[in-house]
Amino acid sequence: xxxxxxxxxxxxxxxxxxxxxxxxxxxxxxxxxxxxxxxxxxxxxxxxxxxxxxxxxxxxxxxxxxxxxxxxxxxxxxxxxxxxxxxxxxxxxxxxxxxxxxxxxxxxxxxxxxxxxxxxxxxxxxxxxxxxxxxxxxxxxxxxxxxxxxxxxxxxxxxxxxxxxxxxxxxxxxxxxxxxxxxxxxxxxxxxxxxxxxxxxxxxxxxxxxxxxxxxxxxxxxxxxxxxxxxxxxxxxxxxxxxxxxxxxxxxxxxxxxxxxxxxxxxxxxxxxxxxxxxxxxxxxxxxxxxxxxxxxxxxxxxxxxxxxxxxxxxxxxxxxxxxxxxxxxxxxxxxxxxxxxxxxxxxxxxxxxxxxxxxxxxxxxxx
Length: 368
What we know:
This protein is globular. It has twelve helices and 13 strands. It has a single domain, classed as 3-Layer(aba) Sandwich (Beta-lactamase). By secondary structure, the protein is α+β, with helices and mostly antiparallel strands. A hairpin with a 4-residue loop joins β11 and β12 (293-304).
């Protein structure tokens, strides 16, 4: 009898944990005891609180705010053909010193491995008796063992060299007040280089740094300083500033296929909305133990005719936060702008030959 009562109570608790009824009924005692579910809704968050919208593209900002809703996080939208920031939602969060990049670091690992000729796009790595991935499928499915193997083959010095080359560990913006740079570990983290290259352990990444990296992938290899014009005069007189040119066009083209696969059949399926206007991206899901946050990342860009836009979504919070959810936020933003015919309203982009000279050089590293 006692065992049966305990079993019924356990079942009732399980129903509550799964979000079922808000009342637990114990029939053996002949009483009904009501209680409020422990999973109360969190108070709605206003991610725009304190933001300065001067100079923002208001159509992009409205779409970003609506897509983010009440989630705790940040959205950054950038024109990858000149480095102009179109909007930053939750600027206080986006300008902080960064969070663990989770699986978005796989973009760095992939570019490094391709550039060092450790693999080609269709090189399969066998992970077990019945499991093998090439770079495209590993990016699309965000396979951790595949990228851990690449990281161990590359070694710490080369991984950190390419991370710096791609803009990690330094400010992405040019004279953006309040921006803090991310961090690159000075030595291999406790989990080793494999963990570093699959989960981002040892790195601290900001949404702006990821936006600059995605912009370089989207435009074929130009790493711009991100600039945030705040007045109409600054917008009218905007001049792009190049941080450095990346000599890895072939490698960039190879990872784009895997990034498209992430949206078409991989971890970022929630982002897709129209095959004629593709979205390419990379998700990231993990726990940042330094801040006790679950992280959900999605770094992406679209290709609509001559026009592109980079959208980076970073979410922080509880167990419901992950990369697929972040990809859904980005997909909503792209979809809203498409419905508004935003892309057809834009002027043609400037040719690269009209851009100014590079004002910074590549970082140096003894490993190269």
